[in-house]
């Protein structure tokens, strides 16, 4: 009973984290759309620009110019991925670390799906660069997905082994 209550609390934490990523992404994209003219660049720091770009593709603008079918495809992928992530967060054997990571990824997937549904494309606005070399622009949803994926890798490499040794 106590283990089930703890698992439910951990799952709620994962969903709360997803909601926070989703909210942060929606708010920041609304600010960019409202205050930054499309296609413009504002130097903010020596290595950071604020931009307003639309990405009709996926990471690194994959399939950006595919002709329009990719919007429905990426919405479908986000729906399937989101259902899987909800399942993983709620699954009894999922660790708290994994639930947090899945929550970050879920929030990012939902946020970018929301953008594709509402705007037809994803608003990207963070532009890191070193001199003339620019990383592809991204947003808060992408940060949630990337940090969540990195946490899963770290957990798989170090955390799961530690859990096995503790329960051993």
Structural overview:
There is one protein chain. The protein contains four helices and four strands. The chain has helices spanning 2-35, 69-90, 96-119, 140-167, and strands spanning 41-45, 48-55, 122-130, 133-134. A four-stranded antiparallel β-sheet has the order 1-2-3-4. Strand 3 (122-130) and strand 4 (133-134) form a beta hairpin. It starts with a helix and ends with a helix. Residues 164-168 have low confidence and may be disordered.
In short:
The chain has helices spanning about 1-35, 70-90, 95-120, 140-165; strands spanning about 40-45, 50-55, 120-130, 135.
What characteristics describe this protein?
168 residues, alpha+beta, 4-stranded antiparallel β-sheet, 4 helices, 14% strand, disordered C terminus, aspartyl protease, Peptidase_A8
Radius of gyration, CA atoms, in whole angstroms: 18 Å
Spans of 5+ residues with little confidence (pLDDT < 50)?
Answer: 164-168
- Total helices: the number is 4
| Cross-sheet strand order for the largest sheet | 1-2-3-4
Strand content: 5-15%
Largest sheet: 4 strands, antiparallel
Helical coverage, percent range: 55-70%
Average pLDDT, to the nearest integer?
Answer: 87
Shape field: globular
Classify the secondary structure makeup into a structural class: alpha+beta
Order of helices and strands: HEEHHEEH
First-to-last CA distance = 23 Å
Topology, number of strands: 4
